[in-house]
Amino acid sequence: CMGCHKTISEYEGEEDLAQGYTKAFYTAEIKKLYAAAGWDEQQFKYTGKPQGVQWVRIHKLPDFTYFNHSQHVKVAGLDCQQCHGEVPKMEVMRQHAPLTMGWCIECHRTQKVSTECAKCHY
Predict the structure, then answer these.
(1) What gap in Å lies between CA 66 and CA 62, rounded to an integer?
(2) Mean of the pLDDT values across residues 81-100?
(3) I need a surface site. Which of 24, 33, 77, 104 has the fewest CB within 10 A?
(4) What's this model's pTM, rounded to 2 decimal places?
């Protein structure tokens, strides 16, 4: 991150005021990267004390639902974009698909995969 962000400490790009994405908003996001990497922007050096990024959960399934990414990615060969959308092109991360029971069942039917409920729900 700091390969670029040690020279890009303030956002200078376009704003999307209708969505609330101001230069101050984006600059604050850059500063989150500094904290996560353990970077001291005043001294231009690593502190040796990285902090985890405080993620905002975007995709949430009910507690009673079991979801196995590896079955979908490694076994079925699905691309991440099929469920999560074109994440690299999103200005701000958002949920692409509803991830509802009906949505999952429809995908399984389309792909001719088992819809046996006990495989996903305990």
Answers:
(1) 9
(2) 88
(3) 77
(4) 0.56
At 49 the three-state DSSP class reads coil
Distances (CA, A) of 119 to 6, 34, 77: 47, 42, 18
The pLDDT tens digits for 21-60 are 899 988 888 888 888 889 888 888 889 999 887 778 888 8
Task: Say if residue 42 is exposed, middle or buried (CB neighbours under 10 Å; 0-12, 13-18, 19+).
Answer: exposed
CB 111 within 8 A of CB 76: yes
Q: Using CA atoms in the order 43, 35, 30, 92, what is the torsion angle rounded to 10 degrees? A: 170
Residue pointed to by tokens 């495989």: 119
Higher-confidence position of 71 and 1: 71
Is residue 36 a contact partner of residue 50, using CB atoms and an 8 Å limit? yes
